């Protein structure tokens, strides 16, 4: 029986399925292309009578691909530039999540 695809992060991040190629640029470094799964869920927060519409863009990718990134580093996804809100957040499985904003 073959190993499940999540045992091989490269197979899990195949661009034939859900992954995209994105460009990351570490501070003081050279731009490079990595693969990741992008998600930008809509969020609507209500505080009393006030509402705020927002999104929470994030990219799931290999932790080793983004180990040198830091908050405020740019990530270009499908021609749109995002900036990291925090350092990459490793999840302990070899993957990391990048939380981003557009401005």
Topology:
Blueprint: H1 9-12, E1 20-24, E2 32-39, E3 42-47, E4 50-55, E5 58-62, E6 74-77, E7 80-84, E8 89-90, E9 95-101
Antiparallel strand pairs: 1-2, 1-6, 2-5, 3-4, 5-9, 6-7, 7-9, 8-9
SSE topology string? HEEEEEEEEE
Number of domains: 1
CATH-defined fold name: Thrombin, subunit H
**What share of residues are in beta strands?**
over 45%
Helix content: under 10%
Q: What's the number of extended β-strand segments?
A: 9
Shape: globular
Strand count, sense and closure of the main sheet? Answer: 6 strands, antiparallel, barrel
Number of helices: 1
Report the structural category.
Answer: mainly beta
Mean pLDDT over the residues: 89
**CATH C-level class:** Mainly Beta
User: Would you identify the CATH architecture?
Assistant: Beta Barrel
Distance between the termini: 47 Å
Strand order of the largest sheet: 1-2-5-9-7-6
Describe this structure in words.
This protein has 103 residues and is mainly β. It has a single domain (5-101), classed as Thrombin, subunit H. The longest helix has 4 residues, at 9-12. The radius of gyration is 15 Å and the shape is globular. The chain is built from 1 helix and 9 strands. Helix content is 4%, strand content 47%. The strands form 2 sheets. Strands 1-2-5-9-7-6 form a 6-stranded antiparallel barrel. A two-stranded antiparallel sheet has the order 3-4.
